[in-house]
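User: quick one, fold this
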Amino acid sequence: MTEQNTAADTARVAIVTGASRGIGRAAALRLAADGYAVVLGYAGRSDLAEQALADIEAAGGHALAVQADVADEKAVAAMFDAAEEHFGGIDAVVNAAGQMKLSTVVDLDLAELDAMHRTNIRGAFVVAQQAARRLRPGGSIVLFSTSVMGTKFPTYAGYTASKGAVEAMTLILARELRGRDVTVNAVAPGPTATDMFLDGKDEALIANLAAQNPLERLGQPEDIARVVAFLAGAEGHWVNGQVLRANGGMV
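Assistant:
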């Protein structure tokens, strides 16, 4: 953890879950580069979270690493408490934490389905609930869906079902926050070169997926981080209740 910062140290404060690696890490680093003080929420990899924190501080930014299971409402509330106590308030919340287990419907282990939905549905709801209660005017909530909502790839049924719940939540919450000057949007990445996406895939499958979009490459975490930064910042504040498919031109 860094030393206590005053509210004058930074204009805006962001909480990013799943910030120890992948898209969450890239989003946290991008927001820090844009001048946000960032709370790095992570589930278990404290070593990776501390490295992300060190990278932000080495670049002159302000950060705080907080362990929290996004589906645990007490842990998430404590993470939001830490953000407010350490940085004075919260302006953006990015819920990048997620699980992905791939299997046909016939073969999917229901214990894996339950674990995935606990993180992806309940976790998104718990984080959004705290954000809705605490964000300052001008704030933004960024949730995560998937472009598989459009592509309908086999073996993604359980994962995509969980992200369908997030998409349903997005516009409803945006409308519930009428008058608060807080936006709610979701980013739906296509195939992106993260550990979660690459796990278990051979080179031929990865090459095939990379060729699915007109840009003929996998997305990089930084590609998605730029979209997150737009939605979280003032430039994207007129975008509200939307799902933005960041996939290089895939369906």
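User: anything notable?
Assistant: Strands lie at 12-17, 36-42, 63-67, 92-95, 140-144, 183-189, 243-246.
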